[in-house]
Design goal:
- By secondary structure, the protein is mostly helical.
- The chain folds into two domains: 4-92, no CATH class; 106-144, no CATH class.
- Helix content is 61%, strand content 7%.
- The chain has five helices and two strands, in the order αααααββ.
- The protein has helices spanning 13-44, 49-56, 59-92, 106-113, 117-125; strands spanning 129-133, 139-144.
- The protein has a two-stranded antiparallel ribbon.
- A hairpin with a 5-residue loop joins β1 (129-133) and β2.
- The protein starts with 12 loop residues before the first helix and ends in a 5-residue tail after the last strand.
- The relative contact order is 0.04.
Length: 149
């Protein structure tokens, strides 16, 4: 079986157009997020865009005003995460929640599925099982082996 991602030609034209459009939007968003860094680099290398917006138009004042809000949001989020982690440490300290599951023996499985233990051994050694059920949801037939795609 092949995945559709390995064969883009299997996609319908509408799917290709939609996925291409979504990809374009996210690339545009990615470039938009890089604009401040590119602006600083341009200023360092002598291009006046940064200087014009930040110094002549006094854009730094807006930045200074927003820095307080940014700090408040960052500290609020960080504080809430630290509080949540502390709560969970106190709540679950010394509580063994990840105990290993008990080993299921071949006999237990055979009893559960109402089949012979040798049959369960074959199932366990097989890499692929095809299980058929009857109307009462019990196993009616099991085939082992590779599939034909």
């Amino acid at each position: 079986m092949k995945l559709i991602i390995e064969h883009p030609e299997w996609q319908r034209p509408k799917q290709r157009i939609l996925l291409g459009f979504i990809t374009l939007i996210f690339w545009m968003l990615w470039f938009y997020l890089w604009i401040p860094f590119i602006s600083v680099l341009a200023w360092i290398f002598g291009i006046r865009i940064f200087e014009y917006h930040m110094i002549e138009l006094q854009g730094y004042k807006g930045l200074v005003e927003l820095l307080g809000w940014y700090a408040l949001v960052v500290f609020s989020l960080g504080g809430s995460l630290i509080a949540w982690a502390t709560y969970n440490i106190q709540r679950f300290n010394h509580v063994a929640r990840r105990n290993p599951r008990p080993e299921v023996s071949v006999e237990m499985q055979a009893e559960h599925f109402q089949v012979d233990a040798q049959e369960v051994e074959v199932w366990r050694k097989s890499q692929m099982l095809f299980v058929e059920h009857d109307d009462s949801s019990t196993i009616s037939h099991v085939r082992t082996g590779p599939t034909q795609c």
